[in-house]
Structures
1.
Amino acid sequence: MNLLEMTFKEVSQLLYNGFGRGDYHAGALLREVIKRGNHNFSTAPEFERSQGMSLALVSDYELPDFTVVDQMEEDNTVKFVTRLHDGCSIESVIIPMKQYNTLCVSTQAGCRMGCRFCETARSGFKRNLQVHEITGQLFSARNTLGKKISNIVFMGMGEPFDNFDNLVRSIRVFNDQKGFDVAFRHMTVSTCGLVPGIRALAGLGLTQLSLAVSVHSAIDEVRSVLMPVNRRYPLNVLRAALADYPLHKRRYILVEYVLIKGVNDSQEAAAALVQYLVPLKVRVNLIAYNPGRDPDPEFQGVDDCSMNQFASWLEDSGLFVIKRWSKGQKLMAGCGQLSTRT
Ligand code: SF4
């Protein structure tokens, strides 16, 4: 029994099938383990008069098989490293916002999408994360590091749609009110543009969930160099999937655009982006490129002036723009800087 992979209904069903019990004990079990981080759940009052079941559950209970082995903090942004059972390392980042903390979770150890500017891509692909390894990052952030987290962004290491089934299962486990209790509207899935994944997520009808898409250039030749995924799913194919995506009436697609000096920061690039986004309901996140550990000499970040100039070109055309000077650059926790090589 691995509670990091189960919803309340499933736990309740398991207790019913095995012991003729149900919601009362399932709620207690999730409260002790998921909300309080107490693996010694059999001491909870609900189990006092159910010692037979308690013993059986304890022997069937799987402790999380991962460990937080390192954590670093800068400006209240915390990056932590988790060592998995097979020696793989993954990174997660806790980002302070005005009223709450957001946890950026990884869905893969490494990534096979090969984006040119990305530190994760350079460290190669190891494997998909299992559901409990994804949800375990929130478990650790809350119960090991003691942080209050109310938002989740699937924006850490890996392409979430490349691990689709485990992603969707993790979303459902995160959302469980008796367990992690993160509202769908407080979760964002970020993709580099894997169109089948966008369409598959759309088919689930989770319209409260936010979708973020890394565009980085609205010119196919440039985007294909930055992001090999564009050769499989070029810009027009991506835009058709985004146009079809079922959005809740007050929600937008977040377009991520990492500004790289001399590559995608010109007025022509801004005009192409405006034209590309015209039919879509979007907000644009502009992010200054973060050079990684061994940065590609072709790529450099932009200064504040260039960032402001690019933003004003977009805003003059009516786009809503959010400028993000990445938090946590020094501790390599900024966008595109997570790595399995820690
Ligand atoms: S930017 Fe995202 S999708 Fe692209 S290689 Fe890095 S982790 Fe993978």
2.
Amino acid sequence: MARRKSKKPPLPIPLRPSAVPTSNASLATTTTTPTTPHPPPKRPKLSTQKLISTYHTLNKRLSHALTTNNMALATLIRTEMSALGGLNAYQRASLKGGSERQGLGASGTWLVSHLPRTPMTLLDIGAVSGTTYAKYSFITPTYIDLHPQHPNILQQDFMARPIPPPESRFDILCLSLVLNFVPSPRDRGALLVRTREHTTENGLLYIVLPSPCVLNSRYMTHERFIEVLRCVGFGIVEFKFAKRVAFYLFRRCGGGVKGIGKIECAPGKGRNNFCVVVDG
Ligand SMILES: C[S@@+](CC[C@H](N)C(=O)[O-])C[C@H]1O[C@@H](n2cnc3c(N)ncnc32)[C@H](O)[C@@H]1O
């Protein structure tokens, strides 16, 4: 007799704009203080991957709510994010997911295998581990993150980091699983443009992305991603597809920034919406 599959417990349903009041008036009716106090909601137990993807979804919805000035919705989404454990829980899941996915430090190993053994400076943006480049004595790393998880990491928003003078620019900039974390296509483009302003002439830009961003998006392909980077002023040096992530190494080249928009380059059902838009 066929065995019945054991049912997994249901996952919390992330907030959808349609399920959430959009005006303060309707919010007021749904937030009436209950007569009997409820205990604080228990943090849902999600798998590492589910927590990461739910956080990304909420982060995108938050960005949309803020852009459309829907502050009531933004507040509700922030509450949902805190219930998951906030950025802290997301970063811990990323660290765990990274080591499950590729062995801790594997993305650093791939980058270093393409570098000459000459002294160089490196800026690791969105660094969670704080020790990725510690064993390479020819690299002087600077680690930054919005919410540091390690004493080596400076608390800093890269988008607010002042543009350095040419002599203080970095030989290498790293964006490992950061571009896909940024919620909107335009903000991703702005992030890439800013990396150029922090990189030495002929400096390198290292990008790690979940493979579906370039293999299963209706708005992005591997070729288009290389084209996007060319518009920002970086030429492709090397790339590699590992099991679940794609590694890209680019070199800064001459020319200014050119705009590139959103086009449906790989239509089809079941695709994701990863996209990068660069304003010209
Ligand atoms: C998925 S984690 C990546 C962790 C790590 N680099 C890795 O490869 O596993 C994304 C990180 O990017 C950070 N981040 C996103 N935007 C940032 C910004 N503008 N400045 C600094 N850090 C940022 C987030 O705080 C988060 O810790």
3.
Amino acid sequence: MTPKQNILNLTYQVFCDAVAELGLPKFRATQIFEWIYKKHTFNFAAMTNVSQSDRDVLAQYFEITLPQVDQTQDSADGSTKFLLKAQDGRLIESILMRVQDRRTLCVSSMVGCPLKCRFCATGSEIGFIRNLEAAEIIGQVLAAESFTGEKVSNIVFMGMGEPLLNREALEVSLDLLLDKKAVGLAPARITISSAGIVPAFSEVINKFGVRPALSLHFPTGAQRSEYMPVNRGYPLAAVLADLKKMHIKPRDHITIEYIMLCCINDTEEHAHELARILRGLHVLINLIPYNPTATFDAQPSTAAQMDLFIKVLIDRGLRVTVRRSAGTDVDGGCGQFALRREAFLGKVGTRTHCMQSKCSRNQRSRCKKCDNEKF
Ligand code: SF4
């Protein structure tokens, strides 16, 4: 007997074709999608406007399986972190951020990540475990909406993993996020963040019309290679050339993510070099205060250094924002929530910072280069 297909892995069109093959009317596919995506009902038995005989046929060939909420943490800034458990017991992390009416869900595309960026808890401490299925990506949205009763208005692919290295599942989940029969978000409300997997990056952005965010973080190829091994396979020049191929609407932009590391990438020279390589691109630079991890020996930039960096960029005609880091009081950096839970389960070492604010692992430290005290 062939295994049941998880409907959350199927686009509307593919599900329509499958329903037709079973000899059921096409409107059954529309009804089932409404139950799943609009009413958050994941059990055929509760789909009362579908005849019992058709429910029996559907249950014979399909299932509706999404990851289950394992833990949540509410942050003082109003965000909620979700740790979801997949069917194989693996943990998937997502964060719901609340700003005024906006509900932005940061979703993961992998368990862990193979790219090993040195400043990132996911890459350096968890490593790559596996890709997520489309059902596990879209399941993060459905789980957050069901759990909170709130409608997600924006999606950012900025959680664990590199989405473009899981392209098939990414494309199915984008189809479902955009399709009015499923989640039904406008393309401008979805952002794909990539460390620079090209040419897949521009291909996906142009195909779906969603917004791009490049995790750039360093203004030279040499520095990128030192801190982001992905640069050895996807060099900076090729990544910048790929950005130029993207169809960006006149009022829109490419977001450039840049983590601020004291004395590593935050000098005036770095700011000038950043402005130089981005010349001619319509970008918004998003500076990210570094959220320390235990395995990377670096400190966040000082406020004064950030101000200087921002001034150089603005003087060079660039637009700059500083990211408010959601949930940093509850292990908010990429992968840190999952890492702490995995440590609790004995799957990885306890190397992340301690939840007890007085723990010696959380003591103030100094930047080894400028000797400024940081936390
Ligand atoms: S920063 Fe992103 S791309 Fe780099 S290791 Fe972490 S999850 Fe992967």
4.
Amino acid sequence: MSRVARLALLCGILIGVSVQAPAQEQLPLFDAHMHYNVEAWAVIPAPKVIALWRKVGIRGVLATSRPNDGTLELMAQQAPDIQIVPFLRPYRVQPDRHDWFNSKGVEAYVEKELKRGIYRGIGEFHIFGADADAPYMVSIARLARERGLWLHAHSDEDAVERILRHAPGVKLIWAHTGMSTSMDKVEQMFAQYPNIVGELSYRGDLEENGTLNPRWKQLMLKYPDRFVVGTDTWVTPRWSEVENLAAFYRRMLSALPRDVAERIAYRNGMAMFGLKPAGDSQPK
Ligand SMILES: [Zn+2]
């Protein structure tokens, strides 16, 4: 240990503070995949969600909830330091995820929710393969493109490509970056469709031998503006993992140059929605 390091450690001990990296060096995060679903409301009330985000350094959130009242409740907290971007989730109840694209009830629900005029996107929704040719999926994709809304799709590559054929140029966040889609296919699709952004939750292959998988690193360096992170609190127990997930992303991103890590951690998410980047002390 160097003399300076010894001195710093001693100072830390003497004044009783942590000698870990100062808080301002911790990467802020933009959580681009979270759900505040009805089952979680009693377990972790909205003020506690805000407190958790604050503690963990999540400074912006793409919020989606089943039903959408969860998102409205989070926004009603009016936390000045946490920017919430609401997405319209087309689910009233859990089983809607299987047939929302064929449901008149969901259509009526979405139409009613759209009237709020607050949503920046639609999703996360689940759709796979040829189901993406359902007429309602086609009209949602075209509506999103017309209104400048994002889609947030949990889909295989086949469904993503069908959606993009229905509404070329529509902005699409690809939940889990396809989850099981091969890296070669992801790379090919990123080249072919510049309007896709990959969200990284549940990509267990991000980590290899305790650090960022070199194949992912190469793709992130090639497309530093095209990835965002997410916690995906799709079931209530997942809320107790948010802190660990934040630490995981910071650990993986530390293998990248700082500017790339910052983009993937929060700057991309903030830029997509025109928010002021959380980590900047001076507005740019
Ligand atoms: Zn999800």
